[in-house]
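Take a look at the protein record below and flag anything odd:
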Amino acid sequence: MTSTVPEAAGGEPAPEADIENDTQAPPAEPESGRRRRWPRILLGSLAAVLAVLLAGAGYAYWRTDQALDSIDRIPDALPSLPEEEQPPSAAGDAEVYLLVGLDADETPEEGPAWQAGAARSDTMMLLQLSGDRQTASVVSLPRDTWVEIPGHGEAKLNAAYSWGGPPLMVRTVQDLTGIRVDHLAVVDWTGFRELTDAVGGVGVDGRRMNGEEALAYVRERTSLPGGDFDRTRRQQNFLRALMTQTLSSDTLTDPGRLSGLLNTVGDVVSVDDGLSNGDLRGLLWDLRGIRASDVHFMNAPVTGTDMIGGQSVVLLDHEAAAPLWQAMRDDDMTAFLASDRAPEELGATVR
């Protein structure tokens, strides 16, 4: 008997049946169904990746927060004066920090111990951050500067910390410069051994220093021809080199490196209690674009030294310093530094 091949619609022969497998294949998924599945797959993948990233970011945030918690806060570090007795704040979003360096191996002058291991303020620097956070200026105030200390009369600048702790130190600097100090950071120079080692050593004056060598470098004074003036230059050189080392390794944008650095900073630096973790985190973020070449170092102008009451003191040149303080207040340091009124910026090499 002859089989008949069924015809498809339109008179064409229908495809032959698969005589080897009479199990029908499932109908193909419509193209529209496949298209609807892809968004779900893509969203699911993105959600998984996002979850991993958020977990990593959350851990980094937690580690950074822990590191920031390790930085000691100094209670009541700024003078509690009525607003009308305070000098004006720097213009716009500019901020001014007073950096105070302590040499813990020195014997403190008579007076209350303001914190464990307290010592006289060995170094005082004003740090001004421009409002756009593109530049910074550091001005060193010699520790032997002859000043009026509120409530105590005339004395060397470094006596203010010994006599009245951080608030008196800040108030004395404010009265001297007419600049409002927004925040205070107290640095223990001896702790820079650990900080230097934490960034893998620091290169200064053509040689690479480990922590012990860096500490000796910033503390030396008696063997230098310029005495304390040369030591100030050395300290600024070290800070510049440390900043270069830190920024060139992208520490501020690497959560792991930043956390490790901050853990070490917590052993070296104390700040006023007005700086929260959020403030410090915001400051680090603001400074991410600054490079060492954007930071300008200088000494406050002086007329020379003198002997007063049997003490060797430094005399500030108030006339030459006035436009410097005004430029810091007005957030106009870039223009000021380009003028012929600016103090000489400290170079990268000293004795």
